């Protein structure tokens, strides 16, 4: 499964026939009954594509009901005032072209009272909209292009084996006393290519703990928590960042057509959150989980293959050569980007102001640049380690990555239609305005609303772990709502990051849960689904609570979420 597929898939039911039915060492009584109920509920959740089909039908029907009932709201809307036009013609012709504002002019906005009504998708105009815009809706949905461009570099790096090699090397050279923190930090970073995080780091975490005389299940739990509970934070710009940004920009237009975000809107918060969560998960592992597990009895281990296949000397040599070549190719790519950006009048600077950050070609192309850096690193590793030899194999690696995105692209097609219908119907404006008026009259503070939003996302994550499907449903409602209440879109995304991760490690819908149960059974034959979930509950509870506190402090201090992304609306 590719990175993007992991980021957006919530169809895995997590009910493997072996681990799911085993009597593990998990807690019994009320806790076990609660987990069993969650598992039964989760197994009944349909495929995300079916969920969005149902949502599309629901929007169509609801739009007509609201239209028939005459639903409407009256609100103040900012309208641009007149701006002096500058003629763009020579001579004294009396037929000028369309007037336009002078360069740099910002019109004065004034409030006008406007009545918003529901547009039905079952009237003549609505039906014509459905039939005539289906292709254009998908064509205008920039998320698909973002996915394809981002996955070129990441897919080649993963297929070449670079991500797995980096994880192996860093675990091997990590200081003995810092091994837990290193594994957790690596797990967070590996979410850029999550297959490697789950399939390589989790077995390696167990093996590393065994080599140090520690309990292997603690290593599995630490690695699993790091890859999953903090999935949507990273020190790198990931494909999920690009997709979330594009979906957000689609919905900001409902209330602020001229406002757009870039992929760095949460970079500072994401980086700091990764380190913070790594420290918290390290503490949970060493102070809570390991004392509870006690000393590992090796006689409990299964007799099957070890958790991590031992590399031959030849494989180690090829891996080392591949890493050296990867570093060289990456440095060359960085030098090229630096020359295109840092020199005076460089093409990636803003041609008018000369700035690099903010409004510049460099920032607009950041996701493409990162993808190309991954591509260079992957090509260098593949050449050095002989895992990608020849241009045909490189193309095949990209094609293989794209092949794995078929289901996701179909899901994006449905999401594009859902957002378009949602926008056309004005349901989002009616809901956002009505809820905003209600919340304003209730005098609930912005911070309390954001904390409530985090908890809502956490609850939804139990039955829909995918990052993108959740956001595609929540963004059209909450981005306009919070924007009307004066809360910046980047602040809402930061809150979404906090709520999205911690529940991932206990939901039965996690697609890698059966694999993790099997890895546990290599070291303790009696392990089952209850074993894994009972180990992970402390991570979920403590990470969620402490991360919310971290978010609240960040918000109150007013640190920007990323470059040019303040906490509050200007």
UniProtKB/TrEMBL annotation:
One Pfam family this sequence matches: ABG_transport
Record has RNA-binding as a keyword: no
Start-end of Low complexity biased regions: 10-20
Transmembrane segments: 49-66, 141-166, 173-190, 220-237, 326-343, 363-381, 402-424, 444-464, 471-496, 502-520, 532-557
Swiss-Prot/TrEMBL keywords: Membrane, Transmembrane, Transmembrane helix
Domain of life: Bacteria
Name recorded for this polypeptide: AbgT family transporter
Organism name: Terrabacter carboxydivorans
InterPro entries named in the record: AbgT (IPR004697)
Keyword Transmembrane part of the UniProt annotation: yes
Region Disordered, residue ranges: 1-30
